[in-house]
Amino acid sequence: MFSTRIIPIILIGLSLLIAPPARTVYGQSWLDPFNGSWSDSNQWSGNQVPNSAAADATINVSGSPYLVTGDIDIELNSLLLESGDAELRLTGRDWTVHNGISISTGELNLRGTTNLNAAVSNSGTITVLGAS
């Protein structure tokens, strides 16, 4: 004989199987689909700019196309770029990302004499433009 306690457990298990996957978010995340500078703490969750060897950053907001300008030298643990509307542009900066950059959608744009020390997993776009 089945117990009535088994039915709720089965329903919870089934809902976990059919629920859409959530977006991955690491540490601080970019808040709005608006242009802005990496160094602006108001653009980041927790009002904290990700910039340490232990920091994880996520840019995954959808909306109209927007530009995140890497305006300071950065050290991160990891970076996830997961929005087709986002462009992360680094111009003449030094960036170290110890556990790599993952780009599932969106664009990483390197310009000028940018030094990027990171493994990159890319399914989006990477643009490299030398000094003009």
Which helices and strands, and how do they pair?
Layout: H1 6-18, E1 28-29, E2 36-37, E3 56-59, E4 66-70, E5 74-76, E6 78-91, E7 94-111, E8 115-122, E9 125-129
Parallel strand pairs: 1-3, 2-4, 3-6, 4-6, 5-7, 6-7, 7-8, 7-9
Give the number of DSSP strands: 9
The major sheet is characterized as: 9 strands, parallel
Q: What Rg is obtained from the alpha carbons, in whole angstroms? A: 19 Å
Average pLDDT score: 85
Uncertain stretches? 7-25
| Beta-strand fraction estimate | over 45%
Q: Determine the N-to-C terminus distance.
A: 77 Å
What's the quaternary structure here?
A: single chain
Give the helix level as a range of percent: under 10%
**Outline, from the CA principal axes?**
globular
- In DSSP terms, counting alpha (H) and pi (I) runs of 4 or more, how many helices? 1
Structural class: mainly beta
Strand/helix succession: HEEEEEEEEE
Short note summarizing the structure:
This protein has one helix at about 5-20; strands at about 30, 35, 55-60, 65-70, 75, 80-90, 95-110, 115-120, 125-130. By secondary structure, it is mainly β. Residues about 5-25 have low confidence and may be disordered.
Describe this entry's structure for a reader.
By secondary structure, this protein is mainly β. 10% of the residues lie in helices and 46% in strands. The protein is built from 1 helix and 9 strands. The chain has one helix at 6-18, and strands at residues 28-29, 36-37, 56-59, 66-70, 74-76, 78-91, 94-111, 115-122, 125-129. Strands 1, 2, 3, 4, 5, 6, 7, 8 and 9 form a 9-stranded parallel sheet that branches. The N and C termini lie far apart (77 Å). The relative contact order is 0.15.
